[in-house]
Each structure stands twice: as C-alpha cells, then as structure tokens.
Amino acid sequence: MLKLWRNYLGRHVGQVTFLFLIQVCQTILNLYLPNLQADIINDGVTAGDADKVWNIGWTMMAVAAGQIVLNIIAVYFSTRIAMRLGYEVRKDYFANVETLSLQEIETFSAGSLITRATNDVQQVQQATMQALLIMLQAPIMLVGGIIMAAQQDGPLTWAIAIIIPIILIVMGVIMGNLGPLFSRLQTKLDAINRSIREQISGIRVIRAFVREDTERRRFDETNNDVFRVLLSIGRWMGAMIPTMFFIINLSTVAIQWFGGHRIESGEMGIGSLQAFIQYLMIIMMGVGMTAMMSVMLPRAAVAARRINEVLEAESSITAPKNPFTNPSAHGTIEFKHVGFSYPGADDPVLSDISFTAEPGTTTAFIGATGSGKSTIIRLASRMFDVTEGEILVDGHNVKEYDPAQLATLFGAVPQKAVLFQGTIRSNLKYGNPQASDEQLWEALRIAQAEDFVREIPEGLDAHVAQGGTNFSGGQKQRLCIARAVVRRPLIYSFDDSFSALDMATDRKVREALEPITRNATQLLVAQRASSIRDAHKIIVLDDGKIVGEGTHEELMAQCDTYREIVESQGGQGPDIEELSIEEEA
Ligand SMILES: Nc1ncnc2c1ncn2[C@@H]1O[C@H](COP(=O)(O)OP(=O)(O)OP(=O)(O)O)[C@@H](O)[C@H]1O
C-alpha cells in the first residue's frame, strides 16, 4: 500500500500537503469547542454573566462554522486525490497488461486481471480517501483529546488511561481476525469472476447441452464460498460496533459518577465535566477512526499488493537492446529442433520440431486434436518463447527482432475468431490503420464478406458488438480473414481459419486469396485433409512430434498416420474443389 501511495500520491504532493494542513486546522478547531463550552457554563451560565455567554457563544459559532468550511474543503480534496489515484493506477495497469506476453497473462489468469483492475483498484481508492480524511485527524484527536481532557480535570484522566488500552485490546482481537478474512475474500472474488466470465461466454454451449443445472450448482459453490467469507467478516464487524458503544457508554457512566463526586466537593466545575465527556467522545472517535483504518487498510493492502504484482510484471518476451531491423524481409521461417512446454505444465507440447517454410509456399499442419498444430503457429510469431531449439525468420532468431516489428510480418487468422467492439471499419483497420476504404472493401471481397457487409445499411460503419456476437461464426471468421488481408503481410498464418465456412465459400476464399498470397509464406492448420492436399509441404504431427513431412502423394505413400487421417475422413476422395462443385450442384 505504501509503495502504491509513494508512487501515486507522490505525484500530488502539493494537494496532499494542503489537505493535511486543512485537516490539522480542522481538528484543532474541533478540540477547541468543548473548551469553549466549559467556559460558557463555568464562567457565563453559572456565574450569571450574560455578556460572557454572548461573547463565548459567538466565538463558538465562528469556530463551528470554520470547522464546517474546512471539512467541506477536506472532503473535496481527499475525494479528488483518491479518484485521481484510481484513474492513474487503472491507466498504468492497463498499459502494462498490454505489454505482457501471453505467458504472464495466462499465469495471472484473465479473471484475476479483471478483478484486480476493478474491485482491487476500488478498494485502494476508497481506503486512500478515508486515509486522507482521517489518518492525520485520528492521532491529533487522540493525543489532543487527552491533553485537553487533562487540562479540564487532571485527576479524572486516569479513567481515560484505563479505557483506551481496553478498547485497543478489543480492536486488536477483531482486526487480527479480519485481516486474513479479507485476503481470503479477494481470492474468492477472483474465483467468482472467473466463473461468471466462463459461464457467460459459454452460455450458448451451456444451453445447447442443457447444462444449466450443473453450471448453476458449480456457480452456487463459488458463490457460497464468497458468502461464507463475507458472513465471517460481517460477524466480526457486527461485533465491533456494539462492543465499542458498550465500552463508551460504560466509560461515560463511570466519568459522570466520579465527576459528580468531584463537583460536589467543589474540585470541578459542571462545564468542565461536560467538556471532559466531550473530550472522551473525541478520543473515542479517534480510536474508532484508527479502528476503521485498521479494518480498511489490511484489505486495501491485499488489493494494493495484487495491483503492484501486475504493475511490476514484466513481459518475458522483450525486445533486445539493438533489435534487428530487416529492410528486405522475405518471410522465410525456420524451426530448428524446437521444443516447448506451456507455463506451469510439466510435459512438453512439442519436441524436436524442425522444418522450413519458404515464401511462395504453403506449409500445412495436420494431426489429431491437441497434437500441437496451433502451438507451432503461436511460436512462429513469438507469442511464447521456445523452451528448446530456435526459430529463425529470414535467418535471424525471432528473439533478435523487436516483437512489435516481428508481429507486423504476420497476418494471423486465429482459430477462435476475435472481433472487438466498434465498427467493421475499426476492426479491419487493426490490420493496417492507414488502409483506405477501397482497400478494406477489397479485403472483404477476398474474404467473401463483401456481400453480407453491403447488405447492412451502415456498410463499413456497421456496429460490431463486444466479441462480435452480432455476427455468425462464419461471418466472424471471414471478417478475421479480411483483417489479415488488409495488412498484406509477408507471412499468413491460418489456424483452422476456414472451419466455420461451408465448402463452397471455403473454395471461393482460397481462390480469391491465391493471387495475393502467391509470393507470401503461408502456414496453414487444417482439420480436413482435403483442404490441404495442394499444399507444397504437409507436416503431420502426432503428440507434439513430426511423424511425416512431404506432399500429399508422398505422405499417402509413406506416412501411416497421414493415410489413417485421410481414410478416416472418407479416403482420398475428391478434393475440396470437387466437393464444393458437387455441393453447389
Ligand atoms: N494456453 C495453454 N496452456 C497450457 N496448455 C495448453 C495451452 N494451449 C494448448 N495447450 C495444450 O497444448 C497441447 C497442444 O495444443 P494445440 O492447441 O497446439 O493443439 P492443436 O493440435 O492445435 O489442437 P486442435 O486441433 O484441437 O486445435 C494440448 O495438449 C493442449 O492441452
């Protein structure tokens, strides 16, 4: 928490100092009021001096008004500073998350990253606001209250010396139990966020398989966990307030009783007893504020630690000091004995993968699900770093490139079509922000998406909902293909990118792509053997290893796994063009 405050409140030292000065003045005025009250009763009312009553009364009014004005200023500045802190933390947080590689994002998990950016930042923001308001006020109230009470009646101060340690012990016990509960709460909130995210994004599958009850039960378990922790927190918080009031009321009765005896014996004025009780209340308020801070701070400290973890996280995929710039890039990709394990996984997903993909050729990957096809595509553009061997692009290790520059060589169409909230234009311009409308329409034409976009009255300005949910699977896939085409990259990677297209559209897209990809390097993952039989090179994967490499004919002759795949899909049969012509007929 301190680190976060140092970094972010440090940027507003002027405002924070001004706020602290206001708080000191306000608290001094607050401490002065009971003193005036004692004077008005002792020297004015009891002595029957009306002038004194008026004079002190006016002073009390002025002091109270001053205190109110200062309080308003303090609330304004503490809110402003805390909101600014939240804004700046969120801004830096998001900027840093954007720089992280998939490796770190998967380690944190998307659900936890969202909770940290929302719930955790809010906790810190609220704690900061309260801290700015009461952190300086509480100790002044405590110490100042004791001094002022002692001035009213020294001998009665022993009562305060007994009451404060009792309250501190009670608070200590309650806070000691609340701290670990808040840590647990944050972890449980992460879990509930993950669960909500998964279930909402998978709602169609849940409905299709009628799994609502199972999912509801799974959610109930997570929800119950949060409920149980909140209940425990509520119990301790609930115990705190009545306990505090019990101690305060008991103390007031004790002070009235002892004070009454001292008034009777003429050692104390009535006004002084009134003031003494008021100072006791101020001291208790100081203790209460400290207690409130000690509830809020541990919780905010947990949140601050989680935010700091993300703010300080560094991408494992970084640019070298002097990145290699390639003025005449061709797009040759070479895998040399590549091995790879996902972060946290024990077993390698890929072992000893070696191949070269040249410009003007298509290298296709086929194999059972989970055999590592998509992983090869991800490694080629350095979304993860290999754990063994090396990957070269145009003869240079991908680690020699600036990752951002390397990414511009690729036009990737991912397995899961990803679109962003905005318009068709804004989504296509991800491929090339400078692209003209003509270029966007041409890309749509190549991706066989022109017709359905033209049918929408807004055309390129048609709204794309979050995640592209207002488009069908095939439409989304075609928009993703168009986005890659807009870039006109040297390397195209199609990760099962035609799976949602019918045979006829699949053929049309491939035909339209042919002229623009003719000189590019193409990496193509496909499930259908018929889709890749024309590839210059087909690599057959089995359990992360290459078990065959060659053209369709070569593999049919030499590779059992490939032959099995082809036969399981209906034998050599007609290729995709023949199939689609039949389908159209
Ligand atoms: N982000 C990840 N974290 C951990 N393991 C992963 C991750 N992504 C994939 N894997 C694992 O790596 C293996 C290879 O996955 P990959 O997605 O490369 O297979 P694939 O051949 O493309 O499969 P499919 O044809 O089903 O898309 C699988 O066993 C999978 O469980």
UniProtKB/TrEMBL annotation:
<feature type="transmembrane region" description="Helical">
    <location>
        <begin position="53"/>
        <end position="77"/>
    </location>
</feature>
<dbReference type="InterPro" id="IPR027417">
    <property type="entry name" value="P-loop_NTPase"/>
</dbReference>
<dbReference type="InterPro" id="IPR003593">
    <property type="entry name" value="AAA+_ATPase"/>
</dbReference>
<dbReference type="Pfam" id="PF00005">
    <property type="entry name" value="ABC_tran"/>
</dbReference>
<dbReference type="InterPro" id="IPR039421">
    <property type="entry name" value="Type_1_exporter"/>
</dbReference>
<feature type="domain" description="ABC transmembrane type-1">
    <location>
        <begin position="18"/>
        <end position="299"/>
    </location>
</feature>
<dbReference type="Pfam" id="PF00664">
    <property type="entry name" value="ABC_membrane"/>
</dbReference>
<feature type="transmembrane region" description="Helical">
    <location>
        <begin position="236"/>
        <end position="257"/>
    </location>
</feature>
<keyword id="KW-0472">Membrane</keyword>
<keyword id="KW-0812">Transmembrane</keyword>
<dbReference type="InterPro" id="IPR036640">
    <property type="entry name" value="ABC1_TM_sf"/>
</dbReference>
<protein>
    <submittedName>
        <fullName>ABC transporter ATP-binding protein</fullName>
    </submittedName>
</protein>
<dbReference type="GO" id="GO:0005524">
    <property type="term" value="F:ATP binding"/>
</dbReference>
<feature type="transmembrane region" description="Helical">
    <location>
        <begin position="12"/>
        <end position="33"/>
    </location>
</feature>
<dbReference type="InterPro" id="IPR011527">
    <property type="entry name" value="ABC1_TM_dom"/>
</dbReference>
<feature type="domain" description="ABC transporter">
    <location>
        <begin position="333"/>
        <end position="568"/>
    </location>
</feature>
<keyword id="KW-0067">ATP-binding</keyword>
<feature type="transmembrane region" description="Helical">
    <location>
        <begin position="131"/>
        <end position="150"/>
    </location>
</feature>
<feature type="transmembrane region" description="Helical">
    <location>
        <begin position="156"/>
        <end position="178"/>
    </location>
</feature>
<keyword id="KW-0547">Nucleotide-binding</keyword>
<feature type="transmembrane region" description="Helical">
    <location>
        <begin position="277"/>
        <end position="297"/>
    </location>
</feature>
<keyword id="KW-1133">Transmembrane helix</keyword>
<dbReference type="InterPro" id="IPR017871">
    <property type="entry name" value="ABC_transporter-like_CS"/>
</dbReference>
<dbReference type="InterPro" id="IPR003439">
    <property type="entry name" value="ABC_transporter-like_ATP-bd"/>
</dbReference>
